[in-house]
């Protein structure tokens, strides 16, 4: 019951409200149960002549004026019944608002904790995680828990109290009638419990089918341009139809099963009420049961059966809530990245030295093997190599997105692993291969690292990234809203926005991970020149497949299969036989016709 413990943990701040809510439902049940007893007393002792068999009711009757007075003023009983109903209504209202309030609070704290935790999970986790699944856990799983807490959790307390209280009164009134009245209770409970445990599988299947339907929809809408470009609309429509039909069929199956359940359970209830009526009338005719008691039993019967029928449902919903909280816990148990360490926070200048660095993703084969090189602050290092040779892996070590397994990386003489992660990330600007822009204005996207930066800084960064003129040509300039994932911008514009966003920070170390690939050669040169002219020159890493992009670098590394196979400057490398010279020859011979040749 680890999951139940977790639910209680999230309810921490709302426990008192829950208690009030349970108290409200108990009081509502109390006022519901009192009504039929008053009717019984009226029939048996006020209209009839039987003595009142409960001290409390006798006191109430005396308070209202006594038996004789009430017999002539029976409307007073009617008013008391209305007051009881109003009180019941008030407490039911209180129960509903209180439990909804605390459920909302609990759901809010689950969502907050989840979101905070997801933000703190390591880069590695997000690389592998299925975003759709994470969204589902943060939304529909939290919703299942919320629904359970808002509706059913308090209902369990209310139903139990109802069952115990009603059974207690029944046994006090007439033992034989109580036994008859309760005969179907275990049958209905077991039937409900077995039925809902069996259909729980279908409930889950419906949930999963709904998840698959939303995944198809989400994927299609995100990749709509690819769908259109490949004229795949019909295929996508068919795929959606399949998932839609699957969801409809499963839901229909569930509804049919539920219809069966409610009909059979109604039948058992009716049979039970019929038995109570028949046996009650028989015993009443024989004088073994008063008319008033018969009325009480008939009224209590439905009060007893309805919550028992619901109980099976509540128990299975509890099962669903437990599954959901388990899925939420799974994320919360993922170890977070320790960012706020008591590690060093040195002033970073940008001298970097790699010595025999090796790195592997988890237990796989090393993707970097014995990498060694030195860079002085302000220098530019270019990295070239075939796809999968380890270029991105190498630069991802710098902001400690991953930690190297062997060897040593020193930044200004300090071992990288001993530098605080948050600190080093503030000092290493990374322009990723696939830039992601937020659905904000261009200005806000550029100054995302520090919203307090002034427009002058924004314009400077945009100019250095050769995007200022493009932005100025838009109707709303820097206030232009970037659509979801920046759909209104071209690939090259998005890349340049990402560059502006990184260089505005003026980090001492900047990494361009193949982030000039979507801009033409002239813009590429313009950006690099602008970067060189900046006051604070950063140590710059450039990953590129284009010789023209890397040729001015102070040091060029050629990687292959995780190893440095060549290193030097453009001048030295074109004189050496090797990959660099080969690529250079291919690219320069096709210079006029082909802009770039990938190696
Ligand atoms: N998160 C990851 N988990 C496991 N393996 C990975 C991960 N990222 C990359 N790899 C593997 O590591 C190797 C090096 O990948 P890396 O992205 O560093 O190459 P690259 O030279 O930058 O390639 P490209 O030019 O295509 O971007 C590849 O074999 C790749 O499959």
Please give a structural write-up.
There is one protein chain. By secondary structure, this protein is an alpha/beta fold. It has two domains: 2-332, ABC transporter type 1, transmembrane domain (ABC transporter transmembrane region fold); 352-589, Rossmann fold, CATH 3.40.50.300. The chain has 22 helices and ten strands. Strands 6-7-8-3-9-10 form a six-stranded mixed beta sheet. It is elongated, with a radius of gyration of 37 Å. Bound molecules: adenosine-5'-triphosphate (ATP). Adenosine-5'-triphosphate binds next to α13. Adenosine-5'-triphosphate binds at residues 127, 361, 367, 385, 387-393.
**For the record, what CATH class of the largest domain applies?**
Mainly Alpha
Which kinds of small molecule does this entry bind, naming each only once? adenosine-5'-triphosphate
Report the portion of residues in β strands.
5-15%
Uncertain residue segments: 594-599
Pfam families: ABC_membrane (PF00664), ABC_tran (PF00005)
Keywords: ATP-binding, Cell membrane, Membrane, Nucleotide-binding, Transmembrane, Transmembrane helix, Transport
GO molecular function: ABC-type oligopeptide transporter activity; ATP binding; ATP hydrolysis activity
GO cellular component, one term: plasma membrane
């Amino acid at each position: 019951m680890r999951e139940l413990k977790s639910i209680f943990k999230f309810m921490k701040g709302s426990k008192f409200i829950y208690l009030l809510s349970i108290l409200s439902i108990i009081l509502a049940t109390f006022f519901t149960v009192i009504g039929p007893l008053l009717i019984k007393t009226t029939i048996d002792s006020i209209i009839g002549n039987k003595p009142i068999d409960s001290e409390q009711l006798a006191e109430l009757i005396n308070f209202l004026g006594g038996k004789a007075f009430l017999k002539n003023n029976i409307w007073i009983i009617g008013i008391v019944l209305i007051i009881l109903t109003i009180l019941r209504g008030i407490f039911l209202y209180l129960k509903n608002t209180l439990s909804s309030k605390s459920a909302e609070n609990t759901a809010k704290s689950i969502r907050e904790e989840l979101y905070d935790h997801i933000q703190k999970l390591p880069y590695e986790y997000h690389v592998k995680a299925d975003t759709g699944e994470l969204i589902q856990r943060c939304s529909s799983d939290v919703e299942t828990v919320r629904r359970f807490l808002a509706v059913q959790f308090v209902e369990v307390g209310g139903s139990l109290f109802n069952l115990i209280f009603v059974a207690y009164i029944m046994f006090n009134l007439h033992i034989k009638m109580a036994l008859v009245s309760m005969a179907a209770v275990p049958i209905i409970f077991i039937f409900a419990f077995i039925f809902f445990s069996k259909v729980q599988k279908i409930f889950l299947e419906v949930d999963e089918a709904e998840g698959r339907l939303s995944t198809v929809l989400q994927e299609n809408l995100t990749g709509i341009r690819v769908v259109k470009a490949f004229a795949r609309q019909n295929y996508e429509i068919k795929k959606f139809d399949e998932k839609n039909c699957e969801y409809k069929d499963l839901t229909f199956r569930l509804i049919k099963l539920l219809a069966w359940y409610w009909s059979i359970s109604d039948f058992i209830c009716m049979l039970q009420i019929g038995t109570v009526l028949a046996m009650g009338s028989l015993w009443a005719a024989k004088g073994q049961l008063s008319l008033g008691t018969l009325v009480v039993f008939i009224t209590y019967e439905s009060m007893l059966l309805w919550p028992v029928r619901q109980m099976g449902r509540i128990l299975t919903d509890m099962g669903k809530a437990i599954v959901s909280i388990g899925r939420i816990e799974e994320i919360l148990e993922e170890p977070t990245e320790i960012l706020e360490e008591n590690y060093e926070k040195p002033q970073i200048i940008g001298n970097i030295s790699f010595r025999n660095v090796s790195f592997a993703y988890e237990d796989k084969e090393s993707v970097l093997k014995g990498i060694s090189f030195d860079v002085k602050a302000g220098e530019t290092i270019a990295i070239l190599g075939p796809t999968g040779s380890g270029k991105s892996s190498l630069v991802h070590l710098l902001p400690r997105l991953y930690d190297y397994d062997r060897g040593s990386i020193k930044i200004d003489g300090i071992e990288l692993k001993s530098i605080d992660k948050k600190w080093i990330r503030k000092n290493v600007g990374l322009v990723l291969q696939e830039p992601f822009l937020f659905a904000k204005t261009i200005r806000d996207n550029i100054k995302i690292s520090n919203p307090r930066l002034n427009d002058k800084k924004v314009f400077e960064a945009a100019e250095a990234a050769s995007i200022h003129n493009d932005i100025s040509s838009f109707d709303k300039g820097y206030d232009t809203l970037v659509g979801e994932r920046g759909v209104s911008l071209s690939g090259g514009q998005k890349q340049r926005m990402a560059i502006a966003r990184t260089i505005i920070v003026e980090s001492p170390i900047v990494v361009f991970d193949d982030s000039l690939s979507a801009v033409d050669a002239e813009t590429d040169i313009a950006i690099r020149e602008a970067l060189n002219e900046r006051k604070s020159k950063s140590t710059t890493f450039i990953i590129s497949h284009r010789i023209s992009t890397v040729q001015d670098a102070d040091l060029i590394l050629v990687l292959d299969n995780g190893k440095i196979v060549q290193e030097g400057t453009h001048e030295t490398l074109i004189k050496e036989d090797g990959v660099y010279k080969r690529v250079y020859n291919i690219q320069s011979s096709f210079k006029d016709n082909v802009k770039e040749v990938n190696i």
